């Protein structure tokens, strides 16, 4: 396969991924269906394929694939689907943590003290997560309490490990991903069903989520433009 063909395939995969993400943005509040699920999962599944195509880290490819699986579960209603989706994303976050801690990428946790913005962001996360957990727990049903607590702590660790990197795309992407999860948690457990702005919350969460995943991906792999 020629380099021109490789570049064309890279661009096509990324373009279709982006198009799927944009299309799903208009289906966020639609009723669950197989077509809606396909559109939603295609966006991150294609990012996983792009990582594989470009020889990206296996942890990255795996994290994106598990995120796509989580998207598939969360495209449907019900507690079982939610728990399966939460579990998929939990493992995806663990893979991201392992990726960020790899010696060729990691700069060490001492890096958190090397710049004020890193220290401030890490401190903000350390304060936000306990407050978020304390706010959510009274609203969360018994089946979700332990999973939500473990998930919240895991995504906090993921964000902290990302802050140790010297990779701006990954840091911004992980921050967007974390913000997306916070909005989704508020939407699911804190905001009344009849609230008029829930649609905008879900759209904002999707934009932050896909944008975050795309930036993390492009922080580790470089398509041939």
UniProtKB/TrEMBL annotation:
GO terms for molecular function: hydrolase activity. Keywords: Membrane, Transmembrane, Transmembrane helix. The keyword Ligase does not apply. It is found in: Membrane. The chain crosses the membrane at residues 12-28, 80-101, 122-140, 146-165. It is a multi-pass membrane protein. InterPro entries: TMEM86B-like. This is YhhN family protein. It comes from Neurospora crassa (strain ATCC 24698 / 74-OR23-1A / CBS 708.71 / DSM 1257 / FGSC 987). The lineage of its organism: Eukaryota, Fungi, Dikarya, Ascomycota, Pezizomycotina.
């Amino acid at each position: 396969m020629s380099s021109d063909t490789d570049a064309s395939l890279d661009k096509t995969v990324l373009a279709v991924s982006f198009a799927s993400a944009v299309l799903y943005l208009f289906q966020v509040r639609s009723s669950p269906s197989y077509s809606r699920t396909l559109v939603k999962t295609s966006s991150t599944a294609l990012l996983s394929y792009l990582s594989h195509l470009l020889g990206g880290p296996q942890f990255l490819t795996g994290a994106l694939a598990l995120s796509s699986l989580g998207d598939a579960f969360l495209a449907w209603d019900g507690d079982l689907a939610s728990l399966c989706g939460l579990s998929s994303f939990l493992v995806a976050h663990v893979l991201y943590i392992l990726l960020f801690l790899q010696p060729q990428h990691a700069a060490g946790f001492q890096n958190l003290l090397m710049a004020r913005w890193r220290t401030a962001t890490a401190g903000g996360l350390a304060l936000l997560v306990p407050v978020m957990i304390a706010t959510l727990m009274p609203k969360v049903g018994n089946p979700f309490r332990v999973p939500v607590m473990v998930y919240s702590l895991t995504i906090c660790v993921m964000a902290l490990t990302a802050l140790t990197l010297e990779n701006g795309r990954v840091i911004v992407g992980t921050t967007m991903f974390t913000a997306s999860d916070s909005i989704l948690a508020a939407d699911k457990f804190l905001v009344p069903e009849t609230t008029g702005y829930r649609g905008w919350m879900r759209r904002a969460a999707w934009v932050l989520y896909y944008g975050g995943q795309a930036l993390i991906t492009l922080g580790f792999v470089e398509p041939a433009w």
